[in-house]
User: Fold this.
Amino acid sequence: MDRTEEQSLRDELVALQQQHRTLDEEIAGLEISGGADQLAIKRLKKEKLSLKDRIYAIEDKLTPDIIA
Assistant:
């Protein structure tokens, strides 16, 4: 992996982590309000999980394999 590809992945990782935090805050706000649409909360949680999967995939690409 060259430096530009690595930097691109790191930039994408930072953006995805920010989106994940934003969704987490949004979900918490909806849950606290009490009158929130449960379907909307479920949809946001599913999107948050999808982001987490993408974050793990990028972290896996950036972390070199160590053969013990």
DSSP finds two helices and no strands in the chain. Residues 12 and 18 are 10 Å apart (CA to CA).
